[in-house]
């Protein structure tokens, strides 16, 4: 039984971020890969949509310049033949401020012949913004 | 081939919200169902964790008092035997302000004997907060 593409991608992705070593990752990306991390791109320029291997390698390099991953736990996971989704909890450090950040993330991935063709990531962005600015943002209470 | 539990749950869930009719939903919830929508509970008291059928019916009733669902599109979906995950885009109205809200959401669901046993929902919360307050929240730019 061969290893699911998710595990190989996940190892190479985290190595790319923490060791700034993209060599393992490059052959695991489809030339036309579609990529999106949904969130406020004004604050996090490495969020947003990218298309194609070069653009995705560049954005992963940018992520690696901004955060270090300490650990991650998959709280939920689904594996298909050529697809995978997970809900994960990450412990990160923001490198510019040296602040710890704890973040919940969901991803949906598609692979073809072992290469990533689509990756969409949803982030608990309000929690991320508050931890990044370092103070609570005052919110009105919605009627209930 | 029987229908996947997700479809029955999804119909009953949206009917519960828009028609405030919980009768179809009640038999589709496990007595010990675990439920969580991650996000700022100070602003949205119907976010957060709930446990057990009664608590989940009550929180779905609260959601129905606060929003109306106009449409939803599943952008990604994975179905397992007793599990499902989707990334979805919702078009909602906030009932207190009559404001339209467009929202990306990811859910992971587990079923047992056709009943929901676990439901975890991640929301693009910063986007939701900005749309709810109705003005952009100023953010510093993270170093890059």
TrEMBL record, chains A, B:
SUPFAM superfamilies found in the cross-reference section: NTF2-like
Domain SnoaL-like: from-to ranges: 11-118
Residues annotated as transmembrane: none
Protein name: Nuclear transport factor 2 family protein
């Amino acid at each position: 039984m061969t290893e699911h593409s998710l595990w190989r991608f996940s190892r190479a992705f985290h190595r790319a971020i923490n060791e700034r070593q993209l060599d393992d990752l490059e052959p695991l990306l489809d030339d036309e890969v579609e990529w999106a991390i949904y969130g406020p791109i004004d604050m996090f320029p490495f969020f947003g949509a990218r298309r194609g291997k070069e653009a995705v390698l560049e954005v992963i390099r940018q992520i690696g310049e901004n955060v270090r991953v300490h650990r991650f736990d998959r709280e939920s996971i689904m594996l298909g033949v050529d697809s995978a989704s997970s809900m994960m909890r990450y412990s990160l450090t923001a490198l510019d401020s040296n602040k710890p950040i704890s973040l919940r993330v969901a991803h949906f991935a598609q692979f073809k012949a072992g290469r990533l063709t689509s990756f969409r990531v949803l982030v608990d962005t309000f929690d991320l913004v508050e931890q990044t600015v370092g103070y609570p943002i005052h919110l009105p209470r919605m009627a209930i």
